[in-house]
Amino acid sequence: MSQAAVEVKNLSVSFPGHGKSVIEAVKNVSFKLTPGKALGIVGESGSGKSVTARALLGLAGGQVTADVLNILGTDARKLPDAQWRELRGGKVAMILQDALNSLDPLRPIHREIADALPLARKARKHAAVEALRRVEMPNPTVRADQRSPQLSGGMRQRALIAQAMIGNPAVVVADEATTALDTRLTRLVLDQLHELTTQGIALAIISHDLAQIAQVADEIIVMRHGEIVEAGLTDQILERPSHDYTKQLLAAVPAGVPRFVPLAREVSQGATPQAGLPRSEASRKATDELAVEVTGLSKTFGDHVAVDDVSLSIGKGATLGLVGESGSGKTTTARMILGLTAPDTGTVHIFGEQFTPAKEIERRALRDRIGAIYQDPLASFDPRYSVSQILINALSQGTTSRARQYRKRAEELLETVELDSSVLSRYPRELSGGQRQRLAIARALAPEPDILILDEPVSALDVSVQATVLDLLDRIQLETATSYLFITHDLAVVEHMSDTIAVMTNGQLVETGIAEQILNHPRHTYTQELMAAAPTWGINRAS
Amino acid sequence: MTRTGKFLAGVFVALIAVAALFPSLLAPGSPLAVHPAEAFESPSLRHPFGTDESGRDIYTRVVHGTADSLTIGLAATGLGMGIAVVLGIITAFAPRWIDSVILRGLEVLYAIPTLLMALIIIAFTGPGTTPAIIAVGLSTAPGYARLIRTHLRTLVNSEMFDAATVLGHSTWRKVRNHLVPNTLTTLLALVTLGIGQAVIWASALSFLGLGTPPPAPEWGAMLASGRTYLHFAWWMTVFPGLAIVTVAAGATLLGRSVTRRST
């Protein structure tokens, strides 16, 4: 057991709140970072995990107090700015979340990576190329001269890792470094991070995603409301979680959970009115009737073939999971099915009736039967509308009637999505991410559709919120036999939600089949790669 | 804006409105009354802003000039905005090639500085109040048109619009429920900001002798006539100048607060 690289005891960070109040973002947090080991810090938005991480670089802001804040042998509690800067540049490095915004789009990445090095210009560039080579950037010499917009998301993230590594740091803090990436890139970056620990670096990896952290971390601390609720070795946390919150987080991970089994388990007595509802395969009203039938859809934007000859079908009351990485054409397919983008060729039929190609006026009669939910619900609401206006607008076909019947229906819709009717007078921007998505679902349900197109509906949500939204979607499907087209890049989610799965890459559907078969016996090489990259949970989930 | 800020803004707008609509309430005398014996008097109780070379009371002239300057500002902005709304709607909704043609044309016009463009237009129409309105209106239109087009395009391609389409709302309802209200707030902000600008440009034209002809009390023209006597009768230029600055700054501040409120 070697000396700890970073030792933190009773770290607290507080910010001035409204008026004279004080917001305690982090309360009495203690942990150690050891060379060659990875510490995972897990928590949901607002849990204080990022503030904790930033405190290790003197970037927390606010009022930082600690009994011990020892960074590489330096007492960092009262460190002047100049010395912090020395630590940050060299010995302690941070990998940021948003690779798109953290790299200057106007400068070649070798300058972004190595500018801080006290070397001659040529040597700096050489060092940058070396650093890129170490993170396995393809074609490092060519890439070094390019600017961030010319790189893919994964390359950018690797450039950021190279940037963090250039000063040979002893401590690396990775804050949500994989959050914006899709499955395969996440895998790559996680492997890179793991590689760092084998080089003897002390790593802190911060994420809201327990499954990802578990791939890399040796130890995990679970944070909630600024406090550590549980800390321990990774295996121990995963297999024998002792705190209720940790159990809840683990249960919320959809990987490996059979269909219609609820994910959100309120450990303390919660308010979810879901008891007594039938939740089994047997109670489903799925029939052989086809809800959606898509044949030969293609769409080209300029020279770019976005969607190439896609055919799929969704049965009544069933869910088709559409999986693919960013840029694979999933969203364009969804837009064509919804009649928002006109396809170059191909047809869409809804319950046997032609939906596309058709004029919008002819389509309108069928519009009630198909609804949509988007990844960013806030953008899909008129910012001037309150919750009740949004729902009444949807219920009344866009007339601005104040009729009482609509108001009552609006309240019923909120009840369906488990939102309190007190939100009626509020505005979507005042709601939390989960509440917004519920509102989006309520609005989509207003015309009582038979089909819902869900485009990454839970990607922006925390795991436990995601669990409640997925449970809600399950319940709605069981009660109303609504068909879902569930678009996502998250394999765990698709596994939990789908009857059949279609895999898309480069605009083409490479494999379609029963969910179980695609997940366990993928035939196409792309699907196999995708499955191999998914985080594996080798843990007992029976508890 | 703070409460005091709002109060001051209200008082200011009221004052400007009274000066423009009922100038005699604030300055009972005639702006054209000549008193050669009282020429070049410095500010005093009798003549708070002093008098000019013909003995006309500058205060009376500044107050009575409000209507003229403001009319030009409002009419020019209205004209520019009217043209811009039409062009903006055409470019936002017409087929792509029409959009490109109009857009390129607008870009050419946009490349010419506004005042220079106004001068070119005056060169064709000749000087006067109406030509000044037309000149300033036409010169500001390209800028507004581009803003409106972008705004409409963004709205039409927004998820908010898509969501309404998916819910089966007709085009007319989408326009009424989402497009018009969301555009109006932006337009209001643009107009308020624009009036201040237009007042300055109109005054600039009059200063050059291309706008309202003398002896009518127009602020820009007053600046021009005072320029000759600047070395001993500073009040002849300072007070009309202050009036221009106050109205332009006031309109800009109001516009800013409208913008902030609508976003």
Automatic annotation (TrEMBL), chain A:
<dbReference type="InterPro" id="IPR013563">
    <property type="entry name" value="Oligopep_ABC_C"/>
</dbReference>
<dbReference type="GO" id="GO:0016887">
    <property type="term" value="F:ATP hydrolysis activity"/>
</dbReference>
<keyword id="KW-0067">ATP-binding</keyword>
<comment type="similarity">
    <text>Belongs to the ABC transporter superfamily.</text>
</comment>
<dbReference type="Pfam" id="PF00005">
    <property type="entry name" value="ABC_tran"/>
</dbReference>
<dbReference type="InterPro" id="IPR003593">
    <property type="entry name" value="AAA+_ATPase"/>
</dbReference>
<dbReference type="GO" id="GO:0055085">
    <property type="term" value="P:transmembrane transport"/>
</dbReference>
<dbReference type="GO" id="GO:0005524">
    <property type="term" value="F:ATP binding"/>
</dbReference>
<keyword id="KW-0813">Transport</keyword>
<protein>
    <submittedName>
        <fullName>Peptide/nickel transport system ATP-binding protein</fullName>
    </submittedName>
</protein>
<dbReference type="InterPro" id="IPR003439">
    <property type="entry name" value="ABC_transporter-like_ATP-bd"/>
</dbReference>
<feature type="domain" description="ABC transporter">
    <location>
        <begin position="292"/>
        <end position="531"/>
    </location>
</feature>
<dbReference type="InterPro" id="IPR050319">
    <property type="entry name" value="ABC_transp_ATP-bind"/>
</dbReference>
<keyword id="KW-0547">Nucleotide-binding</keyword>
<dbReference type="InterPro" id="IPR027417">
    <property type="entry name" value="P-loop_NTPase"/>
</dbReference>
<dbReference type="GO" id="GO:0015833">
    <property type="term" value="P:peptide transport"/>
</dbReference>
<dbReference type="Pfam" id="PF08352">
    <property type="entry name" value="oligo_HPY"/>
</dbReference>
<dbReference type="InterPro" id="IPR017871">
    <property type="entry name" value="ABC_transporter-like_CS"/>
</dbReference>
<feature type="domain" description="ABC transporter">
    <location>
        <begin position="6"/>
        <end position="250"/>
    </location>
</feature>
From TrEMBL, chain B:
<keyword id="KW-1003">Cell membrane</keyword>
<dbReference type="GO" id="GO:0055085">
    <property type="term" value="P:transmembrane transport"/>
</dbReference>
<feature type="transmembrane region" description="Helical">
    <location>
        <begin position="184"/>
        <end position="212"/>
    </location>
</feature>
<dbReference type="InterPro" id="IPR035906">
    <property type="entry name" value="MetI-like_sf"/>
</dbReference>
<keyword id="KW-0813">Transport</keyword>
<feature type="domain" description="ABC transmembrane type-1">
    <location>
        <begin position="66"/>
        <end position="255"/>
    </location>
</feature>
<feature type="transmembrane region" description="Helical">
    <location>
        <begin position="70"/>
        <end position="94"/>
    </location>
</feature>
<dbReference type="Pfam" id="PF00528">
    <property type="entry name" value="BPD_transp_1"/>
</dbReference>
<keyword id="KW-0472">Membrane</keyword>
<keyword id="KW-0812">Transmembrane</keyword>
<keyword id="KW-1133">Transmembrane helix</keyword>
<protein>
    <submittedName>
        <fullName>Peptide/nickel transport system permease protein</fullName>
    </submittedName>
</protein>
<feature type="transmembrane region" description="Helical">
    <location>
        <begin position="130"/>
        <end position="148"/>
    </location>
</feature>
<dbReference type="GO" id="GO:0005886">
    <property type="term" value="C:plasma membrane"/>
</dbReference>
<feature type="transmembrane region" description="Helical">
    <location>
        <begin position="232"/>
        <end position="254"/>
    </location>
</feature>
<feature type="transmembrane region" description="Helical">
    <location>
        <begin position="106"/>
        <end position="124"/>
    </location>
</feature>
<dbReference type="InterPro" id="IPR000515">
    <property type="entry name" value="MetI-like"/>
</dbReference>
<dbReference type="InterPro" id="IPR050366">
    <property type="entry name" value="BP-dependent_transpt_permease"/>
</dbReference>
<comment type="similarity">
    <text>Belongs to the binding-protein-dependent transport system permease family.</text>
</comment>
